[in-house]
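I'm curious: can you give me some protein's one-letter sequence along with its backbone structure tokens because I've never seen that pairing?
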Amino acid sequence: MNAAEIKPPLRLKERLEILCTEMVQNGILYCEAMDQFNRCFIAEVLRRNDGNLIRSAASLGMHRNTLSKKVKELRLRHRT
């Protein structure tokens, strides 16, 4: 494979647009897409903060109680 055949990585916006297109084509409802995004995003922040709700809430820019409710709603695991 030569340098001309190597594609640069897609930018985040482009990757998100592709994902959104696929979800719409597959009939994913807006509420389902938002639930899945919230689940993935919050789970990743929790993972990076070793499940610590206080640090995760600060990283997300939300109150700890709000995050705690969201974690329960999404049935995510966290450190107690």
Remarks:
- The domain at 27-80 is CATH 1.10.10.60 (Arc Repressor Mutant, subunit A).
